[in-house]
């Protein structure tokens, strides 16, 4: 068993890219929180588009944005780090500028804006993970990735809170929020670029391969990790395919949309509860992620990453069964029960987020880290894109269809991770 990593705030900041990079992450997250939760509302109220047209444009923008990931992976494998992070922020500045320039009724321009925002949102996680993997190694890297996620969720939450207060100003307020978002992205890009971090192609830390090999179990882990040392200096080798892990990740990602889509849908349409419950669950989810992401990731660092990832699937499946039971309690008790079970779901989300990207960075041969992370983010982006459609399609067929299907799929994914 590995020794559990200790939480040292200054060390975490250094391992996450340094103080300037941490500020860049906070500013970027704050700006994202101001606009992203209300992008649909912007299209409907400011641009006077229909809700279905706005939703389709946003979905198409996200899906088409995934096409950029192979190029991002190759760019990272040439050694770029802070430049790619800054570029992912700058492309969103262009998206916001397009959004502000879109006249009312022009759905195609809105779709173009959503596309550039989607490209930036899809490229950022892989670029950020590669940057952290260059600065920090081993379990310190896992803690740094967790700390970055906590910081990002805090910024998103504060931004969304500010935007909610400002929404009373109507369309003018939404346009002002979009403008501030663009400025925040621009400032964050400048800060990220100023870090000037570049990695030598195919450079890698020593020790990760030995750490993961023989601990995470399974033929896939051992085969990929045992070849890590020989991968040094081989920048032209193919990225590991990891089909089982990538397929499982598509299902795991559904947990990220449960608090935002599934629970509000169930609470309002099936339990006829006040929307306040949905808001409370979302706030609680944000607070739990901010406060527990690092401690939980550090506490579980004594276990193999693959085992932790599989365990997160079990926790998520248990929470889905809990939601199924909660919805059978009726209107009076159903909403409080759903809120209580949502805490278990958030814990599962925290465990998943703390282990998934960390496992991928540990499995990736050094010369193809960027392409490996790009493949992983493709599976994440695909899961995030299809989960709203799947959830809204299953929900009308009753709680058993929704939560039973999610439970079965997630347990199968957990098994696939360990196979």
Characterise this structure.
The chain is an all-alpha fold and 419 residues long. It has two domains: 9-194, Growth Hormone, Chain: A, CATH 1.20.1250; 208-418, MFS general substrate transporter like domains (Growth Hormone, Chain: A). 79% of the residues lie in helices and 0% in strands. The chain has helices spanning 9-15, 19-35, 39-46, 51-65, 69-77, 82-101, 107-135, 138-166, 170-194, 208-212, 219-226, 228-231, 243-252, 254-270, 275-299, 305-327, 330-363, 369-394, 399-418. α3 crosses α4 (51-65) and α16 (305-327) runs antiparallel to α19 (399-418). The longest helix has 34 residues, at 330-363. It is globular. 54% of the residues are buried. The model is unreliable at 203-233 (pLDDT under 50). This is MFS transporter. Residues 212-238 have a biased composition (Basic and acidic residues). It is found in: Cell membrane. It is a multi-pass membrane protein. Keywords: Cell membrane, Membrane, Transmembrane, Transmembrane helix, Transport.
What share of the residues lie within helices? over 70%
Number of domains: 2
Decide which structural class fits the backbone.
Answer: mainly alpha
Shape: globular
| CATH first level of the largest domain | Mainly Alpha
Please write out the topology.
Elements: H1 9-15, H2 19-35, H3 39-46, H4 51-65, H5 69-77, H6 82-101, H7 107-135, H8 138-166, H9 170-194, H10 208-212, H11 219-226, H12 228-231, H13 243-252, H14 254-270, H15 275-299, H16 305-327, H17 330-363, H18 369-394, H19 399-418
Helix pairs in contact: 2-8, 2-9, 3-4, 4-7, 5-7, 5-18, 6-7, 6-9, 7-18, 8-15, 8-17, 13-18, 13-19, 14-15, 14-17, 14-18, 15-17, 16-17, 16-19
């Amino acid at each position: 068993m590995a020794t559990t990593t200790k939480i040292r705030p200054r060390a975490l900041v250094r391992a996450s890219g340094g103080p300037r990079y941490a500020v860049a992450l906070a500013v970027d997250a704050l700006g994202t929180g101001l606009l992203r939760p209300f992008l649909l509302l912007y299209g409907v109220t400011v641009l006077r588009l229909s809700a279905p047209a706005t939703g389709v444009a946003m979905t198409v923008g996200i899906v088409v944005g995934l096409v950029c990931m192979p190029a991002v992976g190759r760019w990272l494998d040439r050694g770029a780090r802070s430049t790619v992070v800054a570029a992912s922020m700058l492309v969103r500045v262009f998206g916001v500028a397009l959004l502000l320039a879109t006249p009312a009724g022009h759905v195609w321009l809105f779709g173009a804006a959503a596309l550039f925002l989607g490209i930036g949102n899809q490229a950022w996680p892989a670029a950020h993970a590669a940057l952290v993997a260059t600065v920090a190694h081993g379990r310190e890297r896992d803690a740094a990735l967790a700390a970055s996620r906590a910081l990002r969720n805090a910024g998103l939450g504060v931004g969304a809170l500010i935007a909610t207060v400002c929404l009373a100003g109507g369309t003018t307020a939404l346009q002002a929020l979009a403008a501030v978002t663009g400025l925040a992205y621009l400032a964050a890009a400048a800060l990220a670029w100023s870090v000037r971090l570049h990695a030598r192609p195919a450079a890698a830390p020593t020790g990760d391969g030995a750490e993961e090999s023989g601990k995470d179990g399974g033929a896939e882990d051992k085969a990929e990790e045992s070849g890590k040392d020989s991968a040094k200096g081989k920048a032209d080798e193919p990225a590991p395919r990891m089909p089982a892990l990538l397929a499982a990740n598509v299902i795991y990602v559904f947990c990220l949309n449960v608090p935002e889509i599934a629970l509000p849908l169930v609470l309002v349409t099936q339990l006829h509860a006040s929307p306040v419950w949905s808001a409370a669950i979302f706030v609680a989810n944000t607070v739990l992620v901010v406060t527990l992401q690092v401690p939980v990731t550090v506490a579980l660092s004594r276990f193999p990453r693959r085992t932790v990832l599989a365990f997160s699937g079990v926790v998520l499946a248990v929470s889905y069964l809990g939601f199924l039971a909660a919805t059978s309690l009726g209107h009076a008790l159903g909403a409080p029960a759903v809120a209580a079970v949502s805490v278990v779901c958030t814990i599962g989300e925290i465990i998943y987020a703390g282990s998934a990207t960390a496992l991928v960075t540990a499995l990736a041969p050094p010369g193809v880290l960027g392409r490996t992370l790009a493949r992983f983010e493709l599976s994440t982006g695909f899961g995030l894109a299809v989960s709203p459609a799947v959830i809204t399609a299953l929900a009308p067929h009753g709680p058993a269809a929704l939560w039973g299907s999610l439970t079965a799929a997630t347990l199968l994914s957990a098994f696939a991770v360990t196979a």
